[in-house]
Specification:
Helices cover 13% and strands 21% of the residues. The chain has two helices and six strands, in the order βαββαβββ.
Length: 143
């Protein structure tokens, strides 16, 4: 599963067909703390695809892993390792690619008009009752 924070997320392509998630994590372990490692699967068949994602704790460790593992051979496959990028948001049909420019909002001091901003409410104040602590006396009963 891909992380929401993409700073230490690495894409790994051209994996060997029988490569496991554990072996993928072990390959990246020397470069830093591996938070997760997952090989992509076909949603309909569940078969392993030949790429995956590794989430490493820091961006510095992820860049070191890319530099160290890109182009290396594992089980006869030359790995393609690169920093993962955020997926681009696609504009749907009928949607403009850029938002339309809006007129500046004019502020009003009259209630009911567009742009009216009410005055801030005063913050509630709380008072804490302070009482001295009583010492707790424990009595042992003979058994």
């Amino acid at each position: 599963m891909r992380s929401r924070n993409h700073k230490g997320n690495v894409f790994v392509g051209n994996l060997p067909p029988d490569f496991s998630d554990e072996r993928l994590a072990e390959a990246f372990d020397p470069f830093g703390i591996v938070l997760s490692a997952a090989i992509a699967r076909d949603p309909s068949t569940g078969a392993r695809l030949r790429y995956g994602f590794v989430d490493i704790a820091t961006e510095k460790a992820a860049k070191a892993a890319v530099a160290g593992l890109d182009g290396t051979q594992i089980d006869g496959s030359k790995l393609s390792v690169q920093m993962s990028q955020k997926p681009a948001k696609k504009a749907g049909p009928g949607q403009a690619k850029r938002p339309a420019a809006r007129a500046p909002l004019r502020l009003s001091s009259r209630e009911g008009e567009p742009g009216y901003i009410p005055a801030p409410r005063p913050q509630p104040s709380f008072q804490v009752e302070r009482r001295p602590l009583r010492p707790v006396v424990r009595r042992l009963t003979p058994s």
